[in-house]
Amino acid sequence: MADDEAFLQQELEISPIVTGLHDTLSERDREVLRKTTECYGILKDLALYAEELNSESFLPPINEVRDAFDHLMRMYSVLFGLRGGDGEYIKENLDAVFRHVYRASFDYLDYIRIYQKDYMHQRLEGISQQTIVNLFPEYYREILPEIESCLEDIPLYKASKDIGKPDMETVERYHAKVLKLRDYCAQINKMAPALIEAESKLREEVEQRERKESEIRRVEAWKYLLFTIIGAIIGGIIGALVLAG
């Protein structure tokens, strides 16, 4: 309890300082900081999802975040009076923070899109269309058209990326598409075990049918050969009898 009260008191002491620091920022700089915070929320979600798709680190966005943090500390060092700098210096560094976070978000979005496409392909690889239609009809009816639509829209978002004139709406729309694809990946992953089992049974049935058909053809071939031999023997006997007569 004492620790909680001490922590609360510390927060109360720090809050006016932080509020005062932010009050020294211009309205324009506060808006940039707000957009950066909003963009970082998306970036963090993407970073966690990227780790789910691939455990290997993806360096480009990590480097962007590192550079963004460096510029953020430069700004706060001025606000705390640890180094010299004017409003223009703060503005330049705040803009740099946003640019780095913005670029990192697009790096992750592009990276995730590639892995999502590969992931869905790998999970359904070797599964016949017949099996998917039988067990997972909504895939061709709803999911696949939506996936193709998302993959067609995404290059448009990439093309509209402009570091000089960043647009948070573009990031949000791109993020929404990736989230939709994530839901589809989850649905495919959920159905994958049943699809694999059904495909295995289907292949066993096909193999059994082919073996039976092969056996029937083999029997028919032997019958044909046997009848041919018998026919030849009978023909030979008849021919011999005719000659003897």
UniProtKB/TrEMBL annotation:
Keywords (A to Z) from UniProt: Membrane, Transmembrane, Transmembrane helix
Transmembrane portions of the chain: 221-244
Keyword Transmembrane helix: yes
Full protein name: Uncharacterized protein
Organism: Methanoculleus bourgensis
